[in-house]
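Lecture notes, unit on binding sites. The following record was shown on slide 14. It pairs a sequence with lysine.
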Amino acid sequence: MHLTTSYPDGLYIEGIALTDIATRFGTPCYVYSRAALAAAYSGYRNALDAQGFGNRALICYAVKANASLAILNLFANLGAGFDIVSGGELARVLAAGGKAEKIVFSGVGKSRAEMRAALAAGIHCFNVESASELTQLNAVAGELGTCAPISLRVNPNVDPKTHPYISTGLKDAKFGIAMDAAFALYQHAASLPHLAVKGIDCHIGSQLLDPAPAAEAMDKVLALADQLAVAHIPLTHIDVGGGMGIQYQPDKPAPTVADYLAPILAKLSDRHEQLVLEPGRSLVGNAGLLLTQVMVLKPGEEKNFAIVDAAMNDLMRPALYDAFHEIVKVGAGDTPQSFESDRRECRAVSGKPSWRTAKHDEQCWEIVGPVCESGDFLGHDRALALAEGDLLAILSAGAYGMAMASNYNTRPRAAEVMVDGDQVHLIRRREEVAELFALESVLPAG
Ligand SMILES: Cc1ncc(COP(=O)(O)O)c(C=O)c1O
Ligand SMILES: N[C@@H](CCCC[NH3+])C(=O)O
C-alpha cells in the first residue's frame, strides 16, 4: 500500500513522478518499483534466515501472479526459484534466466508436451495432483528414459477463510489429493519405475491474512510425511505453497512475512527436509500500481461516474472478486486521502441528490472503465475531487493485474514500466490494435 511518496508536485515512485511516467509512456500503464520488489523478496529471505531456515529454504516465486520477464529476471538474480503452472510459464522463466533446478511445476492439468518440456529442462519437482497425472508422468518419463521427481499435492480439507474463488484446500475443490487417499498413492508412486518421490506439497488458497489455517494444514502434511518415513518413503522436501495476503485497504492490515510464517516454521524447525515456498501476491502485489487518466465525468441523479482509460480488461480483480483497490489522485497538490473517513462520508450521503462529501470539492464517484459491461468497475463510492484529465493510481495492482489482463473489447493491453531509483524502464510496450487481429484471417472469397 505504501509504494508512493507524496511531494508538492504529486506522487512519486522512488525518484520518478507518476505524472512524468504518464507523459512519457501514456495511460493506462502498470508501474512497478524495483526497490519494492527486492524488499519483498528480502522480507522472505530475512524471515527465513532469522528462523534458521537460511540454508534449507527455496523461495519459488509463483509466476502466475505477474509473469513479466523483467520481474522474473529480477527475482532470478536474487536467487529465487519459480512455481510454474504451464509450459508457457516454463519457457518464460528459462527466457528470464531462471534456473530449471529451482522450478516446481504445479497445476491440475499438465499436458504430455508440458511434462516433456519440464523433464527435458530438468526441473526440481512436479507437484502431482491426481492418480491419472501420476500414471501419465511415469509414462512420459519412461519414453524419455528418465525419472520424474515428484511431490503429491495434498488437499487437507482446511478452510483458508478467503474468497471462495481463490480457496483451494477444501475437499470440494478441484485441487490436490484427498488426505485419506494420499498414503496409498504415495506407495503406488514409489512403485513406479520412472518416478522418484521427493516431497509433499500443500497450497490451501490465496490472500490469507491469518496463518492459522495454513498451520493447521501443515499438521496434517507432517503427520503424513512421518507415516511415509515409517513406510520407507522418506521425503526430501516439504512445499508449503504460497497464499500470504497483502494489505489492500487501511482497515485490513496484513501480517508481516515473519509473523505469517512463524506458526508454520515453528512446526518445521526440528525437521531435516528442505522447505519450499511458493509466494506470489506477497512478492509483487504492493510493488505495482496501475496508472490511469480520467476521460469523462458523468454526474448523475443516482450515481456519479468517472470513466477512466483503464478497465476490467486491464485489472479484472474488482469485477471478478469484488476486490478492493485503493485509488488515489497523483497530480500536484493531491495528497492521498484517508479512504476510511471518505467512505463513511460517501455512505452517509448516499442517495441524496448531490452526493457531495463533507470535504470541499469532493464527490463520491464510481470509478469505471469504458468496457461495455456493468461489471466494469475499478472502485465504488470513492470520495475524490475529480476533473477530466486527472491522473489516478490504482494501488496494490502488482499481483494478478497485468497477469490476468485481456484484450476484451479489442483493447490493447497496457504498457508496463519499472522504476529503478531515478530511472524508469519500459519493460513491456503497449500493444497496438493491428497486433490484436494479426493472427486472424477471414474466410476465402466466394
Ligand atoms: C499452487 C499455487 N502455488 C502458489 C500460488 C501463489 O499464491 P499467492 O499469490 O497467494 O501467494 C498459487 C495461487 O494461489 C497456487 O495455486
Ligand atoms: N487471481 C487471484 C489469485 C489467484 C490465485 C491462484 N492460485 C487474485 O487476483 O486474487
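Take-home: The chain has two domains: 5-31+285-436, 34-280.
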